[in-house]
Design a protein that fits this description.
With 251 residues, the protein is of the alpha/beta class. The protein has 8 helices and 12 strands. The longest helix is centred in the last third of the chain and has 16 residues.
Length: 251
Amino acid sequence: MIEITALKKSYDARTIIDGITLSVPKGTVCGVLGPSGSGKSTLLRCVNFLEPYEGGEIRVDGELVGYELDNGRRALKPRREIARMRSECCMVFQQFNLFSHMAALDNVAIALVKVRGLKAPEAREKAEALLAKVGLSNRKDAYPAFLSGGEQQRVAIARALAMQPKVLLLDEVTSALDPERAAEVLDVIATLGREGMTMMMVTHQVHFAREVCRHMVFLDEGRIVEDGGPDMLARPKTQRLRSFLRHLRLA
């Protein structure tokens, strides 16, 4: 579902992503680990094309992300095409980014109206079903100011799911939450994984990643240092990953 080949991304003279090659099969949850500044969030932003990339390529479901080939040269796709691809490869951020003047139900329904073109009654019906899916049926009329952080993040996930995405990108979605609220969000992600949603998840919740992720990668300085199944966290091959886990008091 996601095919990344020799990806390169720089800011000014600083290389952030340095030749990453990664394949995520359909229905797989891929956990992305690494220290701060290792390129984790930038990698997800490139997959969603919130960040353009200078080298290599990214394909989602076989389609080149962000660019098209014109006589062998790469050119930006039209904005409309980029927007369509983003709706099929949705990203959920650390911050919830909900509309503060809208109740939870309307925060989900607006995406269905504005992007998918549904009529308001149908959009609200689907939004109710999605809020039920993330365990928030009883909070559908609450405004963000009256929702806990975990509830707001679950609304954000429901809003992403409203697009019926091929891929869900999760960028440290529990980093701003206390352990109890984080567990609520992680339960939703685990359920989506069991249902076969393709996901890339940047996280420091290593115990959770061991349980949910079928594939894991460890980044450092913009490169993949190790990749494999969740057992790589129990038996790291490189000193760099051992050091990282030791700092997390996991090894």
